[in-house]
Give the backbone structure.
Amino acid sequence: MPHRAVIKIIEGRSFLTSTPEKSVRAVAAHMRDNRSGAVLVVAPDDGRLLGICTERDLTFKVLAAGLDASTTPVGTVMTCNPESIGPDRLFGHALHLMHEGGFRHLPVVIADGRPIGVISARDALGLELFDFRNELEQREALSEIL
């Protein structure tokens, strides 16, 4: 099922970015407004991936720690140097990395370190469930024939 390239999952889809000096409040509002669970934090000069800020980071590192979201830069609470994947890798590999690492968002980066998208655990629900349903229907049809 997960035999398609990551690029096929993310192509044509937008993703959120921020620079590290933006306030946590501004980043959280941007996530809310775009209904996204993660923001990729990039270097302002060349756009290379520096980190990722997720809903978990906001909950555990800001809210639970009692930090002021208006004055705390996202760069201080992001997950630095996150695991990432290249666009040519298989979606199944992305799922494996997320499962082994215990995270739900995986940046997709090109060779120079710039992000081109994000794979989410939610992606498995849509695309892979569709394939699974088709496979089940084929098996049921074969069972009826046999």
The chain has one domain: 6-145. The mean pLDDT is 90. The longest helix spans residues 121-145.
